[in-house]
Design a protein that fits this description.
The structure is a single chain. The protein is an alpha+beta fold. It has one domain: RelE-like (YaeB-like fold, 2-Layer Sandwich). It has 2 helices and 5 strands; from the N terminus they run E-H-H-E-E-E-E. The chain has a 5-stranded mixed beta sheet. A hairpin with a 3-residue loop joins strand 4 and strand 5. The longest helix is centred in the first third of the chain and has 15 residues. The radius of gyration is 13 Å and the shape is globular.
Length: about 100
């Protein structure tokens, strides 16, 4: 099984890094790398995350890393990372239609 990062998810990672880098560039890079490493657990155990509560679709799941939600779709041979965002926010339905 492989991981596929959508354009939306990659753009979110850049925004997260840009935001954190206002305080510390090194810390921002380290945090985003840790977030990516956390997502890399998914090919070995794709059901590690829970079903996203807002939509209750068993193929759309989320993995929590610190304050962030890594939302992904289970496909037959891949895990597709749809978006990454702060945990206090709700998932927008349009983010699942990538």
């Amino acid at each position: 099984m492989k991981i596929i990062w959508t354009q939306e998810a990659l753009e979110q990672l850049i925004e997260i890094e840009d935001y954190i880098s206002k305080d510390s560039g090194d810390r921002a890079e380290r945090f985003v790398n840790q977030l990516i490493e956390h997502a890399e657990l998914l090919p070995e155990n794709p059901r590690l995350g829970r079903t996203v509560p807002e939509i209750a679709n068993p193929t759309i799941r989320e993995l929590i890393f610190k304050k962030y939600r890594i939302v992904y779709r289970l496909n037959e041979d891949s895990v597709e990372i749809l978006t990454v965002f702060e945990g206090h926010m709700l998932l927008r339905i349009d983010e699942t239609k990538v």
